[in-house]
């Protein structure tokens, strides 16, 4: 019996298609509406949060970044550096050592040949003395006298050198930048001369040197006074100050028992940092080109280089004689501290906040990855910080938390409806699928059984008709026909037994009687059953039973059925010249029954499928061998009932090996 195209299978296919459409289309529409509702809810929450944060940021800017607040911050802390310009925009602090003229440099170079080249120190001393007495420039005079002291020091006359330097330093100061630079150098050389003398004298001179070098800039933040003092030459050049302070700190590093000196070193360290920053900024900004509106206090974003950003706050006015423009310089750490109250108020909600300067470089707040998009970005809103911006970053979880209640309602209602759709669809599809499989199984079963029963019945009817008609030559031929009828009858009996066994299996009515049995008895019974088939011409059949095999708990008849099915399959699926090996042995507390053949073989992908009900590798009605696909499923069922395993090893065109393994001790 065959199933024609366009029959029940095709109708069932249309039913399944319509059912899938009835489930999928409403589900998709519901999910679309639910997604739109959730998206709109999140947009609404985002807009509300944006308004709240924007209002809070504006309020925080008014409270913490206004004119008075920043001025109070400036009054509370020292700047990290400062630069002062006069009313004409000329740099007046920090100034550097102007040096000496080219003519004076040549005169000193000529004498230096005697001092350093030919080592004629007495002659060099005399010429330095002549130069000091002949010059009218006080700075050149001090430089020449310091050079005299250096020659005396090299002549091992340290006391005379120190006395000469003392006389230089005893002279009253004049308001001259170069003169103060040379006096600073004189103090340094005096300390070189005294470092091996009485420690009290050395400490006294070191303290005097600190006072002189830091004179005028020790603690002063009155930039108008500082500018006037710098213009008048009452402050040593900043580069000389910095160099001298570095040397003086080295001299006093080992002295820790002098409170006054310790206090001087602390001020010197503070001034060193300010001078270093001030000199660097003055080098980059010799004129106040960053000032755009005279008379208005504003900030200047300064960028010395990529690794040393600084910020400047300008104060004062230009254009009036006697007034100065001051640029107070602050490091990023100092500026970041100004924004702490502002950030604290803005971030009262869970968020990350960063403040970027006019170059887009982080000045304060949280550092976030460059690829992260801000939730809200606004101008900072302060006259001190033009073109600065504040960016707010909120994790997506914040939106989820804010919108979670309404979104949860949408999601749960939608999911409930979707689950109902899917459950109903799945149950219906399962029922339809089961009906399809039952119909297909029924049709295949009817077709297979009809074919398998029709073949032996047709053969038997033909042989019976031949015998009834007397169409046989002799009694021998009659006997052969009767034997053929008997074999066909036996074949029908085996087939019917398989159907009955399968029926009992399906209804769980198969009963096994487990008793101690020797494996050899099972093998012999199976061999006896298939003896007539295995002894036919063209079949090489051998049996191997290991000695001293232990008994096992098994249903003998059921196990004989297993082995007969395996041997029968080996015989049917082997070629014309059959080689079948049947063995029994013990292996790892198991009894192994193996059936090997040289048959067609089974593809590896089908090794598990062959144990299914009614499954056949070749399911055509015109296949070469008979069978309805129940043998191996019955074998699997019986082996499982014995708590054993069945294994198959097979390659196409090379044959197969089926091995049944039963436990010796159940």
Commentary on this structure:
With 666 residues, the protein is of the alpha+beta class. It has four domains: 8-61 and 397-466; 66-90 and 297-338 and 352-393, no CATH class; 94-270, Serine Threonine Protein Phosphatase 5, Tetratricopeptide repeat, CATH 1.25.40; 512-663, Heat Shock Protein 90 (2-Layer Sandwich). The protein is 56% helix and 14% strand. The strands form four sheets. A five-stranded antiparallel sheet has the order 2-1-5-4-3. The chain has a five-stranded mixed sheet with strand order 11-13-14-16-15, with helices on one face. A four-stranded antiparallel sheet has the order 7-6-9-8. A hairpin with a 5-residue loop joins strand 3 and strand 4. It is elongated, with a radius of gyration of 55 Å. The model is unreliable at 1-8 and 294-298 (pLDDT under 50).
């Amino acid at each position: 019996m065959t199933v024609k195209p366009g029959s029940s299978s095709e109708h069932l296919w249309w039913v399944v298609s319509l059912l899938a459409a009835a489930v999928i289309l409403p589900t998709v529409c519901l999910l679309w509406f639910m997604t739109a509702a959730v998206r709109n809810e999140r947009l609404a929450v985002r807009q509300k949060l944006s308004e709240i944060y924007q209002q809070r940021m504006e309020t925080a800017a008014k409270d913490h970044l206004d004119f008075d607040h920043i001025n109070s911050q400036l009054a509370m802390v020292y700047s990290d550096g400062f630069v002062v310009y006069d009313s004409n925009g000329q740099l007046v602090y920090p100034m550097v050592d102007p040096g000496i003229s080219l003519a004076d440099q040549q005169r000193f170079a000529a004498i230096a040949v005697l001092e350093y080249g030919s080592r004629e120190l007495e002659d060099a001393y005399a010429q330095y003395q002549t130069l000091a007495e002949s010059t009218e420039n006080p700075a050149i005079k001090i430089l020449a006298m310091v050079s005299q002291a250096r020659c005396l020091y090299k002549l091992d006359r340290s006391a005379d050198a120190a006395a000469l330097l003392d006389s230089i330093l005893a002279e009253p100061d004049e308001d001259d930048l170069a003169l103060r630079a040379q006096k600073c150098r004189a103090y340094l050389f005096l300390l070189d001369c005294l470092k091996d003398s009485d420690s009290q004298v050395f400490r006294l001179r070191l303290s005097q040197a600190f006072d002189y070098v830091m004179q005028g800039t020790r603690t002063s933040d009155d930039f108008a006074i500082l500018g006037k003092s710098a213009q008048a030459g009452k402050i040593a050049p900043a580069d000389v100050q910095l160099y001298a302070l570095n040397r003086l700190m080295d001299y006093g590093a080992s002295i820790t028992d002098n409170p006054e000196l310790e206090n001087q070193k602390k001020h010197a360290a503070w001034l060193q940092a300010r001078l270093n920053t001030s000199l660097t900024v003055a080098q980059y900004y010799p004129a106040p080109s960053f000032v755009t509106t005279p008379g208005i206090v504003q900030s200047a974003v300064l960028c010395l280089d990529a690794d040393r950003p600084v910020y400047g706050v300008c104060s004062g006015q230009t254009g009036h004689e006697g007034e100065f423009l001051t640029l107070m310089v602050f490091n990023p750490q100092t500026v970041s501290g100004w924004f702490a109250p502002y950030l604290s108020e803005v971030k009262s909600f869970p968020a990350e906040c960063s403040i970027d300067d006019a170059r887009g470089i982080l000045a304060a707040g949280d550092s976030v990855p460059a690829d992260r998009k801000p939730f809200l970005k606004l101008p900072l809103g302060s006259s001190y910080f033009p073109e600065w911006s504040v960016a707010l970053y909120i994790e997506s979880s914040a939106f989820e938390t804010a919108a979670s209640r309404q979104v949860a309602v949408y999601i749960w209602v939608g999911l409930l409806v979707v689950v109902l759709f899917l459950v109903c669809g799945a149950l219906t599809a399962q029922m339809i699928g089961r009906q399809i499989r039952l119909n297909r199984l029924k049709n295949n079963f009817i077709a297979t059984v009809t074919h398998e029963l029709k073949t032996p019945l047709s053969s038997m009817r033909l042989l019976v008709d031949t015998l009834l008609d007397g169409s046989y030559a002799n009694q021998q031929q009659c006997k052969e026909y009767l034997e053929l009828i008997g074999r066909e009858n036996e074949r029908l009996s085996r087939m019917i037994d398989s159907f009955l066994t399968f029926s009992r299996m399906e209804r769980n009515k198969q009963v096994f009687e487990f008793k101690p049995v020797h494996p050899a008895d099972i093998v012999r019974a199976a061999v006896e059953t298939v003896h007539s088939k295995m002894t036919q011409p063209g079949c090489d059949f051998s049996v191997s039973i290991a000695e001293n095999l232990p008994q096992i708990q098994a249903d003998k008849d059921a196990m004989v059925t297993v082995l007969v099915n395996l041997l029968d399959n080996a015989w049917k699926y082997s070629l014309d010249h059959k080689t079948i090996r049947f063995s029994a042995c013990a292996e790892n507390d198991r009894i192994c029954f193996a059936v090997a053949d040289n048959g067609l073989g089974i593809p590896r992908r089908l090794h598990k499928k062959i144990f299914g009900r009614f499954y056949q590798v070749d399911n055509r009605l015109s296949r070469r061998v008979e069978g309805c696909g129940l043998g191996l499923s019955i074998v699997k069922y019986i082996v499982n009932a014995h708590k054993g395993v069945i294994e198959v090893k097979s390659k196409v065109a090379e044959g197969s090996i089926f091995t049944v393994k039963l436990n010796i001790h159940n």
